[in-house]
Amino acid sequence: MSTKRSSDGKGDQKKKKFKVASGFLDPGTSGIYATCTRRKERQAAQELGLLFEEKLQEIYGDKLKELENDDNIDENVNEPKTTEELSIEEQIQQELSEIKTASNPISKEQKKKELLHFVDLDCECVVFCKTRRPIVPEEFVKKIMDELIDPQNSIKRTRYVQKLTPVTNSCSASMEQILKLAEKVLSPHFHSTESEKEGYKFAVEVTRRNFNTIPKMDIINNLVSVVCENGKYKHKVDLKNYDKLILVECFKNNVGISVVNGDYNKSYKRYNVQQIFEAKLNQKDTEAITAKPKKP
Questions:
Q1: Secondary structure, 3-state, the chain
Q2: 57 lies in which domain range?
Q3: Region annotation Disordered: residue ranges (predicted)?
C-alpha cells in the first residue's frame, strides 16, 4: 500500500519556526545581553535581576552613596519657598506640583533600580538589561565573571542563563554611525600612547540577530581600519591568539560595541556561565579520581 504524503510533499518533517522579534533598542543604549534557554526568557531575566542588584551594591556601593548624597543636596537646594514668600500664582503652581508628586512618588529604591532596567526584546533565547552610570558594562560583567571562575565559589546562582555579553555603547545601524561609535569605544583600548608603541593582536566578533542591514564582513573590515588607522598603530589581526577582542552585537536597527581581553575565550569560557560551572564540575571529578587510593 502506498503511504500518504502531505500536500507540500515534505511528509511529517516540520521546520522549527522562530518568530521575528518585535522589541527594539534605542541608539546610545548601554547594557548587557544574555542568552538563555528557549522559552525561559522571563525566568532568566528574573535570575539576572537578583544577581545584578546584589553585585551593583558590591561593586558600585561607594558611588551609589555619592549619588544619593548629590540627590539630597539637590533636594535641599531646590526646597520650596514658604507660602508667605510666594505669589498667588506661584502658590497654585506649587500645590499642583505637590499633588503630581504625591500621585507618582519615586523612592530611592526605584531610582536605584533605574540603573538596571530589563528591556523586552521579544526575542527567543535572548534578554537585555539596560544600564546607566555609574555602571560600566565591560567592568561590571568582568567582575561578575571573576567571581564565577573562582575555584572556591561553588554556588551557581542561575539556572537558565547561559552567556553574558557587555555593550559599552550602541548606535543606529548605519556605517557612518558605527564608525563614530567605534572611534568612541575603541580609542581608550587601542589609541593610547602605550598601545601606539607596543601594538596589540586583536580580532572582531560580530553577532547578528534579526539583522541584515549591513554585511558582516563590511562591519569587520571597517572596525579593523578604525583600530589600525591606516598603519598609524602596530596592531595586527589574530583570530586565535588575540590580546583584545572587539564584540559587536547587532539587533534589528541597533549596533552595540564592547572590548574584552584575550583571556575571554579560554579562562572565562566566552563569559558562558554554564560552561564555567561545567568546567568546575569536571575539575572536581578529576581531582576526586586522582585522590582516590589505588587498591593493592
A1: CCCCCCCCCCCCCCCCCCCCCCCCCCCCCEEEEEEECCCCHHHHHHHHHHHHHHHHHHHHHHHHHHHHHHHHHHHHHCCCCCHHHCCHHHHHHHHHHHHHHHHCCCCHHHHHHCCEEEECCCCCCEEEEEECCCCCHHHHHHHHHHHHCCCCCCCCCCCCEEEEEEECEEEECCHHHHHHHHHHHHHHHHCCHHHHHHCCEEEEEEEEECCCCCCHHHHHHHHHHHHHCCCCCCCEECCCCCCEEEEEEEECCEEEEEEEEHHHCCCCHHHEHHHHHHHHHHHHHHHHHHHCCCCC
A2: 30-73+110-284
A3: 1-22
